[in-house]
Amino acid sequence: MSYESKEELEPLNPRTLEPYLFVSVVLILFLLTIPPHPLSQNDPAFEWHLPYSNIRDGFISKEEAREKLKELEILLKGSYLKTTNVEQRDRLYFPLKGYGPTAIGGKEGSGYQIQDYDFFDGNQHQGHPGHDIFIHDKNQDGIDEGAGKPVEVIAAVPGIVVSINLNWKPSSPIRGGNYLWIYDPIKSRYYYYAHLHEVFAKVGQTMSKGEPLGTVGRTGVKAYPKKSPTHLHFAVHQSVDGYPKPINPYRDLIKGDWN
User: Which end of the chain is more exposed for a tag (fewer CB within 10 A), N or C?
Assistant: First the structure.
């Protein structure tokens, strides 16, 4: 004896399924537009970015941070040499497109001051371990007065992007604003580009010398106020057994290539 009713035996009307089919198609299309995460948790560049953020914000001890960076340097070197052809490193590219050494602030590199500076002091560090490179921007809109467009920041040397900061707001205490760190595994040096407006590169990306990194901006605690002319802060750190120590790049900048 069957207990199935006539209603249960009737086929489904396709029209009743149309709303559900539409929602399903939209959901599938949305999922297909989500790009996969470009880095895995095992990527050494991604792993460098995380402890650096903790160093910057004072959430990690100097000893722990140094050991972590020392360990990651080995992985960064190995990863780079496996996937990248070694480029010429004898001369720097001047890090601002269309500019040269005359744009460097101070007198003969006097802006470089490292009194009591320590990389592991993060956002609370002392001194000024780099050079400010100024653009022609009297009205402070980030547009070069002569070219009529933003000034590109370019990679002074080839290397791996190991940390970036994006979407800086005036309420943020981060001194560098929108910044980018690149590690050169051949010379064991870290290159720092700060106060950017746009950042084109991503963590883990391998950059060639002269490749665009972003544009000059006015982001950062000291670069944002009106009293500060628009500039790029450029610094170089030599890694000594896992300890990034600042070195003065002034001579390399004035002898480098520019256009």
Answer: N
Which residues partner with 237 through β-bridges? Answer: 190, 246
pTM of the complete model: 0.83
Range(s) of the domain holding residue 124: 44-255
Split at pLDDT 50, 70, 90, the class of 83 is: confident
Asked if residues 128 and 112 have their Cβ atoms less than 8 Å apart, the reply is: yes
What is the domain-level CATH number for residue 124?
Answer: 2.70.70.10
Region for residue 105 given its phi and psi (left: phi exceeds 0; alpha: psi -120 to 50; beta: otherwise): beta
Report if residue 151 sits inside a domain: yes
Q: How many domains does the chain have?
A: 1
Exposed / middle / buried, residue 172 (Cβ in 10 Å: 0-12, 13-18, 19+): middle
Q: What are the angstrom distances between the C-alpha of 9 and each of 15, 17, 18, 20, 94?
A: 17, 17, 21, 22, 78
